[in-house]
Design goal:
- The chain is of the alpha/beta class.
- It contains 16 helices and 5 strands.
- Strands 2-3-4-1-5 form a 5-stranded parallel beta sheet, sandwiched between helices.
- Helix 8 crosses helix 9, helix 9 crosses helix 10 and helix 11 crosses helix 13.
- The longest helix is centred in the C-terminal third of the chain and has 23 residues.
- The chain starts with a helix and ends in a 5-residue tail after the last helix.
Length: about 350
């Protein structure tokens, strides 16, 4: 990153991108026009939670350098950063892809009726709110409609399409977008990644800084991707019996298999999308830039309708898995429907 880019980042609550959102939130605080509820949307790894926490810091920092600018060094800011602040409640499903339950909403609603212990506001942060079941979503509506003046509700979600319209209508919606691939690549190189690795991770992350940093710091994640893509190539040439055996192994109940299955599906979806785009002769660069030759070879053997069907099936599979369908059956159906490549 250039010195100018670093300067902008330091003035932007420490974020790469989301300048408009940071500026809007700053202005709400500076002009005492803070809304009672905010919804931050966008794909995971984009910085939704981090932005919500920084906003909570700006709301409660006892010694802000300027209105709307948290110092990020005081005890309050550090506690909020660690999500251990007495006036901050964090509510989420037990694991990603799980279910946020109505009991969790009811529990936090009681605490929100009390005056803040320490700060100016009580803040409730509802992470991945698209995982709330209908009862939980409806339970939050009453608080959204009648939130006490000292309470701020912050929600994150993958997309507005996954939430009830009644929830959306009661929130200030902040639709976050990723910065450019080139910007994220420079950001990673500034943090020690060599050019080739930074370029690959920037593409794999789709420009999501948080996800890019996790890939950079987690060697096992890249190794897992490598293994699953090698499995992918073998499966395309395998027999029905071999695909059945792989489905059984992939969805074994041991070692948190369901979450690993979900991660595998996301890796394969990404690759199939690259194949579909190449089959369509699109100009967009592939996400899996280190697998360009394999993408070209597969796209040359399959038609655009064939690749589009597989991508659609894969995307539906991710959604079905999150709805707790039988993982073993889902894997078998998916793999048997894949084309056989000689």
């Amino acid at each position: 990153m250039t010195s100018e880019q670093l300067s902008v980042t330091s003035q932007n609550w420490g974020f790469l991108g989301h300048e408009w959102a940071v500026e809007m939130l700053k202005q709400h605080i500076a002009h005492q026009a803070v809304r009672h509820a905010y919804l931050f949307t966008g794909p995971p790894g984009l910085g939704r939670r981090s932005l919500a926490l920084r906003f909570a810091q700006a709301l409660n920092c006892p010694q802000p350098p300027t209105p709307g600018e948290p110092c990020r060094n005081c005890r309050t800011c550090k506690q909020i950063e660690a999500m251990q602040y007495p006036d901050l409640a964090v509510v989420q499903a037990e694991k990603e892809g799980g279910v946020l339950k109505v009991e969790q909403i009811r529990e936090v609603r009681h605490s929100l009726s009390l005056a803040p212990y320490q700060g100016r506001y009580r803040v409730a942060l509802f992470l991945r709110f698209q995982e709330a079941n209908p009862n939980a979503a409806n339970a939050l509506l009453k608080t959204l409609e009648e939130a006490p003046p000292q309470v701020i509700l912050l929600l994150t979600a993958d997309s507005v399409d996954l939430l009830l319209p009644t929830i959306l209508s009661r929130c200030e919606v902040m639709r976050l977008r990723p910065p450019s691939i080139e910007t994220v690549q420079a950001y990673l190189q500034e943090r020690g990644a060599d050019e080739a690795k930074a370029r690959l991770i920037a593409h794999l992350s789709g420009g999501r800084p948080g996800y890019a940093l996790r890939l950079m710091q987690d060697k096992a994640a890249l190794e897992f991707r490598q293994t699953r893509l090698e499995d992918f190539q073998r499966l395309l040439k395998s027999t029905r019996r071999e695909r059945f055996a792989y489905a059984e192994k992939l969805t074994d109940r041991k070692n948190e298999a369901k979450e690993r299955f979900r991660e595998t599906l996301l890796i394969w979806v990404s690759f199939w999308r690259d194949v579909m785009l190449r089959a369509a002769k699109a100009d967009a660069p592939p996400t899996n830039i280190d697998r360009t030759n394999e993408i070209e070879v597969l796209a040359a053997q399959l038609s655009l309708p064939e690749t589009r069907r597989v991508v659609t099936d894969m995307e539906h599979a991710v959604d079905r898995l999150e709805r707790n369908v039988n993982a073993r059956l889902l894997a078998e159906v998916l793999l048997l429907d894949w084309p056989h490549i000689k």
